[in-house]
Design goal:
Layout: H1 4-30, H2 45-78, H3 81-90, H4 96-129, H5 137-168, H6 173-195, H7 197-200, E1 203-205, H8 210-221, E2 229-232, E3 243-246, E4 253-257, H9 258-263, H10 266-281, H11 284-306, H12 310-315, H13 323-333, H14 335-363, H15 369-380, H16 389-395, H17 401-410
Parallel strand pairs: 2-4
Antiparallel strand pairs: 1-2, 3-4
Helix pairs in contact: 1-2, 1-16, 2-4, 3-4, 4-5, 4-13, 5-6, 6-11, 8-10, 10-14, 10-15, 15-17
GO molecular function: metal ion binding; metalloendopeptidase activity
Family: Belongs to the peptidase M48 family.
Cofactor: Zn(2+)
């Protein structure tokens, strides 16, 4: 008979799946609403119907993927897969740290292999059907190999260090592991824009001209020291457009997808960048970083509490107890807390998006161009304009685009607020 730990994990897995199912079905029904008035003249009838078709296709596909993931996990669990893999690796006679790295690596590899057909189908069938896919098989394979290489190069030593800390550092091993991983994460964020991101995309400095001058002039007016404005070749994978802010300290970068630059006016692009700078000026980047570190510390502390718990291992039919097994099974046990935290953090993220929108409109002389940029982005990305409230509550890190546009339109004109 399954013990309490197993019941909690099983209940959470099933509950989250059915919550997702209900939210997705409600979201599909909400998509049958008419075109919001804010998008009259932006979407033609055929284009809007295409966005609804895209939502239906991606929703059904993601539900199938979620069901297969859940089914595979349950079959693997109840067939004794966790224990069989553990016994196989223990028989090789490696030390516990190397065995743990191989154990967790094998589980991640199994997960990746299971997800690969779904990634292929989404990229080369669904995204292709709706005109988004620009990824060639060569680029897809190269991305896959690069990701695997980085996982081995970076993930393996980090995982080995964490397992060593929990095994050897005594009662305060979780504290050493937390501090070490936090420092490593900060270092990675510092070097990633220059060393890691260029492995996947070309970062080309924005050429001199009207757009560069407009961006630099705006950055000076809000006291934002820019060390680089880059255009990245997002078009080699997708026709979708985006922009993002990355790095910190002297390595702060703003990156514009080439698809964004080619489809928007100078005013719209500066407004989008003003939104990204707003995240920095409002300290959203710092807040998210601190919350992430605090959450990691709580996870590691609770992991130390449940470390080597016989009942937890019994729930997964394990013969032997180990630190690496504790890590895997605790994360499954922690999933209800993680689920609730994700909802709260996404609510905070939506609040931050409104604040960044407000910053852009208030500080840029043509800030209302942000609304026009959002309309174009929604049209080109076939965004869902009428998501259901439950789906937003569970999944959205950004507010629905219609709500963002309404707030932008209701905002006082630039110069009416002091910042």
């Amino acid at each position: 008979m399954m013990n309490g730990f197993g019941q909690v994990v099983l209940f959470t897995l099933v509950l989250t799946f059915f919550l997702k199912l209900i939210a997705d079905l409600l979201n599909l029904r909400a998509s049958e609403s008419g075109l919001p008035p804010e998008f009259q003249g932006v979407y033609e009838e055929d284009a809007y119907r295409k966005s609804q078709d895209y939502l239906r296709a991606t929703t059904r596909f993601s539900l199938i993927g979620a069901f297969v993931d859940l089914l595979f996990l349950l079959v693997f669990w109840f067939a004794g897969g966790f224990n069989m893999l553990d016994q196989l690796l223990r028989a090789q006679g490696y030390n516990t740290v190397l065995t743990g790295v191989l154990y967790i690596g094998a589980l991640l590899l199994l997960q990746g292999i299971l997800g690969l057909p779904f990634t292929l189908y989404r990229t080369f069938v669904i995204e292709e059907r709706f005109g988004f896919n620009k990824t060639t098989p060569k680029v897809f394979v190269a991305d896959l190999l690069k990701t695997l290489f980085l996982a081995l190069l970076i993930g393996t030593p980090v995982l080995a260090a964490l397992l060593w800390f929990f095994e050897q550092a005594g009662p305060f091993g979780w504290l050493w592991a937390w501090g070490g991983l936090t420092l490593f994460t900060l270092l990675l964020q510092y070097v990633a824009p220059a060393w890691i991101m260029p492995i996947f995309n070309k970062f080309v400095p924005l050429e001199e001209g009207e757009l560069n001058n407009a961006i630099m002039q705006y950055a000076r007016t809000v006291g934002f020291p820019l060390t680089g404005i880059y255009v990245i070749d997002g078009s080699k994978r997708s026709s979708k457009a985006n922009a993002f802010f990355t790095g910190f300290g002297k390595r702060k970068r703003i990156a514009l997808f080439d698809t964004l630059v080619s489809n928007h006016s100078v005013s719209e692009l500066v407004a989008v960048l003003a939104h990204e700078i707003g995240h920095y000026k409002k300290k959203h980047v710092l807040i998210n970083m601190v919350l992430s570190m605090v959450n990691l510390g709580v996870v590691f502390y609770l992991l130390s509490v449940f470390m080597n718990n016989p009942d937890l291992f019994s729930a997964f039919f394990m013969q032997d107890i180990s630190v690496y097994g504790s890590l895997v099974f605790f994360l499954l046990l922690y999933s209800p807390v993680e689920f609730v935290l994700s909802i709260l953090l996404q609510a905070l993220s939506r609040k931050h998006e409104y604040e960044a929108d407000s910053f852009a409109v208030s500080t840029y002389s043509d800030g209302f161009a942000l609304g026009e940029a959002l309309k174009k982005l929604s049209r080109s990305n076939l965004s869902n304009l009428t998501p259901h409230a439950l789906y937003v509550f569970l999944n959205y890190s950004h507010p629905p685009v219609v709500q963002r546009i309404r707030r932008i339109n209701e905002h006082p004109a630039p110069g009416h607020l002091n910042h």
